[in-house]
Amino acid sequence: MSQQQRIVYFSGNVQGVGFRFTAVRTAQPYEVAGVVRNLPDGRVEVVVEGDKDQIDRFLDDLSARMDSHIHKRQEQTAEPTGRYHDFHVAF
To answer: Exactly one of 38, 43, 57, 73 is catalytic; which is it?
Structure first.
């Protein structure tokens, strides 16, 4: 298994449309942990840790569900921190 952390920024009409709660529901069947939050500049940030394949599947599923609201998706990969034990909304 190749564990990693992925930090993803979603831009577009992504705030006020249920994006964060959709992300939490979408994450449930996958073995991932992390956080989703609104940013002051109008983007949504997703920090997710787990197996590369599980992260890929989760992010593809989330992107498909919220496709009409997303104009841009930027990603960066990092070493996992192990600090997350579930996937939740940060306020």
So the answer is: 38
Name all domains of the chain by residue range, CATH numbers in brackets: 3-89 (3.30.70.100)
Q: pLDDT by residue (tens digit) across 34-47?
A: 999 999 999 999 99
DSSP-assigned states of every residue in 1-54: --EEEEEEEEEES-SSSSHHHHHHHHHTTSSEEEEEEE-TTS-EEEEEEEEHHH
Q: How far is CA 90 from the centre of its chain?
A: 12
Whether 20 sits among the annotated catalytic residues: the reply is yes
Query: Is 25 one of the annotated active-site residues of the chain?
Result: no
CA distance 87 to 67: 21
Which pTM was predicted? 0.96
